[in-house]
Amino acid sequence: MTPFPGNAKRGDPAEILVSLRRNGQYRGLVVRQIPGGPLVVLAGNHTMQALQAHGAGRCQYADHEKNPCAMCADGSWDGTTARCEIILCDDDEARRINLADNRLAELGGYDNDALAELLSYLDGDYEGTGYTDSDVMALITPPDLDDLDGSNDAGPDPEPAEKPSLADRFLIPPFDVLDARQGWWRTRKKQWLSLGMRSEVGRGDNLVFEGMAKADPKYYDKKRVVEQALGRPLTAAEFEADHYIRPDDAVASGTSVFDPVVCELAYRWFCPPGGKILDPFAGGSVRGIVAGILGRPYHGNDLRPEQVESNREQRDEFAGRRMLAADPSWSIGDSADWVKTLEPNSADMVFTCPPYYDLEEYSDDPKDLSAMSYDAFDEVYERIIAGVAKALKPNRFAVFVTGDARDNRGALHDLRGSTIRAAVKAGLVYASGAVLVTAVGTSAIMAGRTFTGTRGLARTHQDVLVFCKGNRSEAAKACGDVDVHLPDGVEDAFADVDESDELAEAA
Ligand SMILES: C[S@@+](CC[C@H](N)C(=O)[O-])C[C@H]1O[C@@H](n2cnc3c(N)ncnc32)[C@H](O)[C@@H]1O
User: Fold this and answer.
1) Residue 362 near ligand 1, beta carbon < 6 Å
2) Please, which residues have CB within 8 angstroms of residue 332's CB and are 6 or more apart in sequence?
């Protein structure tokens, strides 16, 4: 075989060899058979060079016996031959094929988002693709992060950034670590809460600790934990002044106020504007109020009448202040029954936060999932997920915020896994799994002791699981561009928080 005479392309045989060793020769060379003459390579000239460089007979690379490259491993490479597609053509056609093969690939372009997604599946191992770590970084780094060290600041009149950053476009960069400890997040959360959202029945004013013991079901657990750590009893006043972490600070967990920033991101990213949201474990009012403010009609169902009553009061308060662009609603009952009443293919999003097994018991109602055994929980949970999946329209997203629970023998129970299994069984596709990094809270006090005693790692994360019914691209299209703007009245209320840190803390 001979190379094409006069080939104008200058390829990169070394890089092709890396690909050959990783991927094998996945495509034949296109070779012209000149009757009675030589075999001329029209397409794949640099691949031929790479094959030659690989070496005949014996792989020159690595430890051939233990770790053969893909070329050697598939047995098709004997060191002297290449897989080819032989064609017959005249000289003119041969030149055109050679030119076209080199040129046509160059004429195409890239959808950079699709490219970044495809590369992300490789988990950082780009060998054999032609991409390097820095290519990928350049692809995913917003322009405003390119120059963190200021090294491009030399010019007196810097060019304005051409593209908005990922944060400009999506509020925060859409990576699968969502860090609620970061400054932007914490400020945003305080701003949302400053609007006056309360989630828990009986909590009353967030600033007032009196009554906390009643309102926070974990109050005495928390107090006991601190007392054990300090090795002495504490008065309520002492505990509340120095050690008590208000449920507001424990992001998105238990009976705490569900993190409104998680709601905001979930709705803006995964729910079409004006889309109808279903929540089978409604808990407090936050998911409904934030949805209403962002113009998405929300319906939540919860077993506890007093919780739903309190949510409705909150809704009326916000409606009175004309802050709701859509009306949230709640119903009372067992969601295992409620899902049977839902119209199939009617909702634009499912967004929920189930009980984290028995981490907190919401009631002693035998239908309350948090009062069930782990197996019973899984069985009812699966039915509820199947029900909401059926009610979801095709090409739409479902988002579950979950966390694991430890049983009294110390074993973790995997709610994330149960959720994924149930959702997949219900016909949903598991699309993204993010870690929500949350405030350290009381775990800081116990982390050393727990680790020393059991090597248990203090949990400071929850899971945000994104599923899709149908096609993800179609679902993304239905959601449209992410709107990052706040409704006017809300923006004004937020601004107050910016002006005063104290007010922010109070919120
Ligand atoms: C983790 S909580 C939601 C709390 C959430 N973090 C909040 O405050 O927004 C789960 C909720 O599921 C509810 N629940 C438990 N079992 C249920 C069932 N079978 N049907 C409906 N709701 C149920 C509980 O009453 C509780 O409010």
Assistant:
1) yes
2) 301, 302, 303, 304, 305, 308
